[in-house]
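Each field is set out underneath.
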Amino acid sequence: MALMAPVNGSSQPGRAIAVMLAGGFLLTVNDAVMKWLTGGYPVGQLLFVRSMFSFLFIALLLRFMGGWQSLRIGNARLHLIRSLLVVAGTFLFVNGLRYLPLADAIAIVFAGPLFITALAPAIIGEPVGWRRWLAVTIGFLGVLVIVRPGTEAMQWAALFPLGAALTGAFRDLMTRSASATESSTAMLATGTAATCLAGLCTYPLGWAPVVAQDLGFMALSGFLMAAAHFLMIESYRYGEAALVAPFKYSNMIYAVILGFLVWGDLPDAWTWAGTALLIGSGLYILDRERRLGAGPPRTGGPGGSGG
């Protein structure tokens, strides 16, 4: 039995694409800021402080998005599950940023659509044909090319963004389902509150004194994260995920540019090859679903560090 019902999309494709591109850019800049900060602070501390600043952005949204009424929750269970997925994905991805180049971490998160396709029969009751199974297999080969298990170049930290891809895929699926009844502001607020609480729970593990300059970066990250995820949530309201999701891959372009400008990192040939396999398989799956008129979209993809 399917766990989730199909959701009909709206018909503003141009707006949906523009909003997703803007959200992806802000999210990648946020990821770069978080990577910079992970060198001096525990992940839980960063997420707590960042979330506190995100609430300031949410407060601004309330002024323009219907006031406190926009925080009304219609399906508490859906918000709870989505928030838990946000927390898990955020901790996993930010830990991955600590150890991996920015572009590598984001490339691995592209495995999100593959996870959802592989689990589609159990999650949404949709059979998956051999063509999409082949695409999933090729996509996961792309992950192996990037990680290179069994070699000296093996990146064990790749397990963090890979886990984030899995949780992010389900989070995006639930976001699309929830957009029919829940406001973007409410989803953003509950996800931020859950991340804030989870970060606070790490206080007994030890936090570091915050330098004034770094506090400014944490504030910037909070605003970037909140704005990015609000825009990405909105993109699913304006257009079908089969249309919107491919534009998440633009995050790789932003990541390569920022990674080179800030850290001097450039993906090696293996990473480029694996990324090409991941993106190619993801785009094929999306195109196949569009041709088949598949049910609820499977929108897992670059999830960034919160939502």
Remarks:
- The chain has twelve helices and no strands.
- Residues 1-9, 294-301 have pLDDT under 50 and may be disordered.
- The two ends are 28 Å apart (CA to CA).
- The longest helix spans residues 212-238.
